[in-house]
Design goal:
Layout (H helix, E strand, L loop, with lengths): L1 H15 L34 H9 L1 H16 L25 E2 L3 H25 L33 H29 L12 H11 L14 H25 L5 H6 L3 H29 L2 H8 L1 E2 L8
Antiparallel strand pairs: 1-2
Helix pairs in contact: 4-5, 7-9
Length: about 325
């Protein structure tokens, strides 16, 4: 049969031919449940993937969404800085629990502290007004051989109270009474309550006071252990009581030099009593400045304690 023989020969000829037929790609099999592709509609864009379409499929939509996201960030502006973490509560060194609030200062201590702070500033300013009437120590035409940086240098007006000599004397005599009365009330409370014990500077406090001074001078890294008051505080508070007594006694010898002539003579005479009274003023001023600086730099919680009486800070409130 000629037709039956031709078919195998044609197949063999096609297999042996150097020009091979290009195999057509297998039709895409739609996913299960997907609709079958329909016939192409004339005038519409072919659904076959183009070069740009292949690039879009390779990169993915997320890559093309980045410029839009960056533009949104630019429109929103820089992010707000995060708030610093609040300081941790004071912890107990052994238990690790937060320290409780404790009553540290009696109301008498708080009252006398603030009254004396205000009155003492007025006493110092009025005293400088009195000194300004004659800016040296010694009777007219003489000079005491003692150091005086303000010798013949008037005190600035802003630091004086009273306006002139009589005004300074009036303010000074008026303010000396609340200063003396609150001082007596404070000392009396210390003696009757026993609160003088943690304040009294003793010989055993010399060594801890030196270590505390090293800490303040940054010669020691760790704060020395302490109770309600450290050794330097004890020394300062003990000294300030003595300084207050010296100020009152020298002031009385200047106020009544005839009636209290024995007291005036005890200080070496009127001019020397005036000089020691003046030195006490500057020691008080130095104490106030150092006291305020150390409160804010070492233990700010003590400021709240001297106002409200309650304390919770880095140090215990007992000895």
């Amino acid at each position: 049969m000629p037709d039956e023989k031709l078919a195998p020969d044609a197949a063999e000829t096609a297999a042996d031919s150097p020009i091979r037929a290009v195999e057509a790609p297998a039709p895409a099999v739609p996913a299960p449940g997907a609709p079958a592709p329909g016939p192409a509609v004339p005038g519409t864009r072919s659904a076959a993937p183009t070069v740009e379409g292949e690039r879009f499929a390779a990169d993915g939509p997320a890559a093309h969404a980045e410029p839009a996201a960056s533009e949104a960030v630019e429109r929103a502006g820089p992010a707000e800085p995060s708030k610093p973490a609040e300081p941790a509560e004071p912890m107990h060194p052994t238990t690790g629990a937060p320290r409780p609030f404790v009553l540290r200062h009696h109301w008498i201590v708080r009252l006398t502290h603030w009254v004396n702070a205000v009155v003492l500033v007025g006493m110092m300013a009025s005293g400088l007004q009195i000194y300004n009437a004659y800016e040296r120590f010694g009777v007219r035409g003489t000079r005491l051989p003692l150091p005086n940086p303000l010798d013949m240098h008037p005190v600035p007006r802003w630091a004086r109270l009273g306006g002139w000599l009589a005004g300074g004397l009036s303010w000074h005599f008026f303010l000396m009474w609340p200063l003396a009365l609150t001082g007596l009330l404070y000392v009396g409370y210390l003696l009757l309550s026993g609160e003088w014990k943690p304040l009294l500077f003793r010989p055993r406090d010399v060594g801890p006071a030196i270590e505390m001074q090293k800490y303040y001078l940054h010669l020691r890294k760790e704060h020395p252990p302490q109770g309600k008051h450290n050794a330097l505080q004890k020394g300062a508070y003990s000294f300030i009581v003595v300084l207050g007594m010296l100020s009152v006694l020298t002031g009385l010898s200047l106020w009544k030099p005839v009636q209290l002539s024995w007291l005036t003579a005890l200080f070496g005479g009127y001019e020397l009593a005036r000089y020691w009274h003046f030195v006490a003023v500057w020691l008080f001023a130095a104490f106030i400045v150092v006291h305020v600086i150390l409160v804010f730099t070492v233990d700010p919680a003590s400021l709240r304690a001297i106002i409200t009486g309650w304390y919770r800070g880095r140090f215990p409130s007992h000895d």
